Structure formats: C-alpha cells, structure tokens
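Before a colleague's protein record goes any further, I have to sign it off. I want your independent view on whether this chain really folds as the tokens say. The record follows directly below this note.
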Amino acid sequence: MEKLMKIQRFPLLFEMTKGVIMSKMSKGTAKLLLVITILLFLAGNSNALPSYARQTGLSCSACHFSFPELNSFGRQFKMNGYVLTGMNTIETKVDSDRVTKLKLLSTLPLSVMVQSSFTHISKSVEGVQNNSVALPQQLSVFYAGQVTPHIGTFIQMTYNGQSLGMDNADIRYANQKLLGSKSLTYGFTLNNNPAVQDVWNTSPAWRFPSASSNASVNPAKSTIIEKLGMQVAGLGAYTLYNNFLFTELTLYRSAQQGAANPANTTSSMVISRVAPYWRVALQHQYSKNYVELGTFGIASNMYAKGISGEMSKITDVGFDFQFERRLAIGAFSLHSSLINETEVRDTSSTQSVKINYNSFKVDGNLYLNNGLGATLGYFNTKGAVDEKVGSANNKPDSNGFIAQLEYLPWYNTKFALQYVAYNKFDGNKNNYDDNGRNSKNNNTLYLLVWLNF
C-alpha cells in the first residue's frame, strides 16, 4: 500500500495504474567492464533490479508483460517522462516551498543489460562459420531515470562484440494539466531513432522480435524508418488528451555515428534539411481489455551520395493496431503494422523513377503468470523490381514466420528459443541468389539469454 500511496502524487497516472499495482501486491571489452564496475559501484545497492524499478520501488512486472513489451502502466510511465519516483530524493524548494528547484535521486539511475546467444542457420553460408556463439551479443549500460521533476532519460551505450558506442537514446520533458475536466499530458523528446520514443509495441523500434541474431541471414531491403536508428537526431513535441488521443511531431536531422560529422562528400544517406516524423494514435482501456489504432510515418529527402546532387524522396506511411487482454492465467496481446514506402529517386538531373515497397508484420503472444510465454509472428515484404535492392534478382519480396518460446524465472531474466522460417527470400522460394541457395536454407534457430540488473 505504501507504493500505491506514492503513486497518488501523480493523479493522472493513479487510476490507470491502481489495478496493475494492486494485482502485483496479492576489443575494448576490458575497458568497458572497468567502466561498468565503477558505474555500478556509484549506483549503490541495486537489489538486482533495473534502474526504473529502483527509482519507482515497483517490480519490473508493473511496466512489462515480458520486457521490453510495455503494458498500460509502462506506457504512462514513459509518456510522463520516466520521472515517477518512490525512492528518497535530495530536494531544494524556494518561494515558500512551492517551487522545487532541485530533486536528485539518492543514487544514480544506472542499469546493465547482457545478452548472450547461440545461432544455427539451416545451411551454412559459404565462407562463414555456422553454429555461432556470441558473448556478449550486446552489453549495454543505461542511464535511465529521473533528472528533474519533469525530465527523464533512456540513454543506452552498447558494446556488441566489435565496437562500443551510443545506442538508443530518448531524453524527454513531460508535464500535465487539465483542459476543462479532461487531462492533457504534453512533452518534448530529444532522441536518435525514429519511433524509439514510441510507447506501443507495433512501431519499428519496439515490435516483435525485440531481440534477434546478429549471425542470421537477413533480406536485403527494409524501410527507411528502420535504417535511421543512431544515424539521426530529432527534437519533437507530443500530447496525450484525455488518455485517448496521442499526437506527436518530431523533426530529424542527420547525426551519423561511425562516419564524418558533419557530413561531407564521403557520406551516404544524408538527410537534406529535416525529415518530419509523425505519430497519431487512439487508445481505449475497457474492463480487462485495451485497444490502440494509429498511424505513423516519416518523410525524408536524402542525397544519393555526399551532400549535394541527385536525391531520393522517401516517404514511409504506417498503420498499426494493438490489442491486449488480461487473463486470470496471464495476458494475451496482438500487434500488427503495415508500412507503405514510396521512393521517388533521381536517375539524372531531369528524370526520376518511382518505387513502391510494403512491409507487413503481425504477431500474437500469450504470457503466463508463471513466467512462460509464447509468440507467433508473420512477416511479408514486397515491392517493385529495383536494381539497388541488393539481391541477385533485384527483388525485395520476402515472407515467413517467427515462433518464440520464452521463460522468465525472474522478472529481469529471460531465456528465449526462437525459430525463423522463410517461405520466400529476396524474391524467390528457390535459387534466390542464382547460386542454388533456397529460402529455407536461411531458416534460423536462435537461443538467447537476456539479463537486466
């Protein structure tokens, strides 16, 4: 009950979260490890829980069905700026104690993520070893939590076995007010990956599968919104009206990592001016059910090479649907998204060509209270024949299924078994590369161990 009283300080969150909480009540590796050790020492007693859990005093299961998938409380926590606090803070107030000028967490909001994996591909790729092991697949340090009463962070630094650098980042300001008798949450986000700031599990940054093998063979083409992560920086504003209508507009500019910055004549995929990203969603919670229906997209003008000359005007327009139902034995959820990409590519100073591409994904999952979970997903990409696709036959069409079984013995620990089965790969079912390789040869068995602490 003490945890519930702390959340009542945030009235717009209280009603939505009360049911959830009540139910929970009955090569540079050595250097990186040294940094992590120092950070964990500074962070103090972690109680084996990630930084948001330490900050709020709530279990990971308050925000997630199975991490990183968010539930209703998790979505509200993120939209309100990651600032809900249940731990001791260092505070300074002025103007007769009515204005808070300082509110620091008593420990740094730090967490660590470790992923280790095994990958088996149905038929080995010539010249590449099969049955690969990754330790780590990812090793990440997060600075994730409240900075001020209205500013919070999700900042990730990752070592992927080859390099160390900035991963996903979302820094946001959030506040609330009343419009008449209706609530309004509003805020600003500074981030480096279109849709990483999104709270639904249908957007490109957070949809299933949340983890996959770095050793797998992947289709040649994907949408532009899936390629811009950590290559841009964006500043945007968002609102949530009456806990029903969500709107966001964010403007992105190239901020490439591992390449020249500022961009120059050697750069590729450089955005001219800014690329607007939009998000509109309707959501409704009724009884034990939750439903969301929305649209999102990005419009970018990108140079074919360098920072001048021929360009491609690429527009992604997406539609998504999400359904959740709480069950006595756990929770069921369904996610679906469709992205239509239109590219108008300059072929000369006076001519251009129009290319269409579509990506459809759907998945359904069941998470049980005992930590077991199962997900089945389907994906289908198709589009025009294009010599720049990167496949042998210039076709982008691929489709197949992804099945995953997982077990969470503890809320911050996941073991997963995933299988990806292709019906079509880069345009054909058989001999897609003109060298006798079939789509089913790329079927992938993936074992994952995922720890957060």
